[in-house]
């Protein structure tokens, strides 16, 4: 048994910073981690840097796997290339900022017939998911994570959420442009209306 396992089983967490990690175990009828629902969307990010990062921190800020490289470069004192995606988490880890992003972009490219392509944006409170290959009302999902943390009430087709949906679509298009995701082929999303 390695150091990680020994420390974990003793109840000493190996990390100084951790995020929740979950896998779909039947929620929404799925058993995997590809869907953009809250349970599978979270992944742990463990950091230990004795003498630099204060131990015992837990952050709920939105981060992404694309933040790892800029963070390492920043801590190493190296320049972060302008065309590199992601943000350095150094200000977050040193307690200088509460968040590095206000919205997170998600794109799953599909996996056969059972896992469709999905493109989405998650903000602190809302989540918009687009399924380009789906038809009709199944094409869009919109959730208010504050009022519906289990994501059971799709608001995408309710008239009172039309403006919010359009604003989130605009934000999603901006994120697609920012990350230069030229693989997006979703006319219902990319059109202005």
From TrEMBL:
It comes from the Bacteria. InterPro entries: Alkaline_phosphatase_core_sf, GAG-degrading_sulfatase, SGSH_C. SUPFAM superfamilies: Alkaline phosphatase-like. Residues 158-185 form a coiled coil. Keywords: Coiled coil. Pfam families: SGSH_C. Residues 26-177 form the N-sulphoglucosamine sulphohydrolase C-terminal domain. This is DUF4976 domain-containing protein. It comes from Lentisphaera profundi. The lineage of its organism: Bacteria, Pseudomonadati, Lentisphaerota, Lentisphaeria, Lentisphaerales.
């Amino acid at each position: 048994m390695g150091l990680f396992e020994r420390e974990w089983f003793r109840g000493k967490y190996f990390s100084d910073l951790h995020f929740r990690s979950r896998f779909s175990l039947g929620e929404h009828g799925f058993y995997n981690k590809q869907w953009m629902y809250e349970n599978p969307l979270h992944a742990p990010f463990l950091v230990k840097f004795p003498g630099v990062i204060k131990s015992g921190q837990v952050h709920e800020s939105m981060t992404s796997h694309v933040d790892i490289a800029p963070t390492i470069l920043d801590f190493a004192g190296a320049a972060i290339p302008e065309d590199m995606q992601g943000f350095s988490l150094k200000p977050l880890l040193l307690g200088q900022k509460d968040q590095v992003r206000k919205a997170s972009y998600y794109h799953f490219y599909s996996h056969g017939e059972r896992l469709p392509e999905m493109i989405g944006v998650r903000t602190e409170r809302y989540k918009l998911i687009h399924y380009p290959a789906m038809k009709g009302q199944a094409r869009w999902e919109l959730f208010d994570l504050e009022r519906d943390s289990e994501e059971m009430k799709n608001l995408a087709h309710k008239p009172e959420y039309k403006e919010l949906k359009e604003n989130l679509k605009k934000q999603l298009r901006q994120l697609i442009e920012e990350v230069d995701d030229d693989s997006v082929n979703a006319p219902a999303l990319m059109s202005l209306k």
